[in-house]
Amino acid sequence: MMNFFSKAPTVKEIQRQNDRDLRKAGRDLERDKANLEREEKKLEMEIKKMAKEGNNDGCKILAKQLVQLRKQKNRIYAANSKISSVQIHNKAMGANIAIAGAMGTTAKTMGNINKVMNPHQIAKDMEAFKQANAKMDMTDEMISDTLDDIMDESGDEEESAGIVNQVLDEIGIEISGKMADAPSVSRNKIGQSTTDADKDIMAQLAKLKST
């Protein structure tokens, strides 16, 4: 009973079956060729034997058989060559089918990607991003400029100058007290009196405060 629900073989399965059939046919021909070659050798030996015996009629009969046998062997060579050619064609066809299948899959995938990726929407989103990025840069620049103005107006420079002068005044007071208590005859390592060295420091401090 025929099974109407049997699954039809795929092209790849058909190609594999064809390849198996061709290999089997080639093996059968090789087996037939080997048998003919054995018969050929036997005929050659028989012809030589009859020739030695002087049996010309027998030699002619066997010679005709030998000619027919060799023709059949040549037919087998031709058939083997044809089978080899068909095998190569079958493999090439399988490769082409695989390539076609891959191209079909690629085309389908590209079609799916094109459906998902809307070029107009992508261009619109990129333009919106560009505008938002430019706006953010402008906002950041405005905030930075405003902060710079606020910092400039806060009087940090004057405050810093006041702190420096205060520190210098404290140093000056300490040095003044040191000058009052230090003996005038003491010398430092380079031969200068302590009082003279402190006077130089006071002069430098006064110079810093005036700048």
- Protein structure class: mainly alpha
Our count of helices gives 5
Low-confidence runs of at least 5 consecutive residues: 184-194
Strand content bin: under 5%
Radius of gyration: 56 Å
Overall body shape = elongated
Question: Brief overview, please?
Answer:
This protein is an all-alpha fold and 211 residues long.
Quickly list its features.
Charged multivesicular body protein 2b, 211 residues, elongated, Snf7_fam, mainly alpha
Structural summary, described in words:
This protein is mostly helical and 211 residues long. It has one domain. Helix content is 86%, strand content 0%. It contains 5 helices and no strands. The chain has helices at 11-53, 56-116, 119-153, 156-181, 194-210. Mean pLDDT is 75; it is low at 184-194. Belongs to the SNF7 family.
Could you outline the blueprint of secondary structure elements for this entry?
Blueprint: H1 11-53, H2 56-116, H3 119-153, H4 156-181, H5 194-210
Helix pairs in contact: 1-2, 4-5
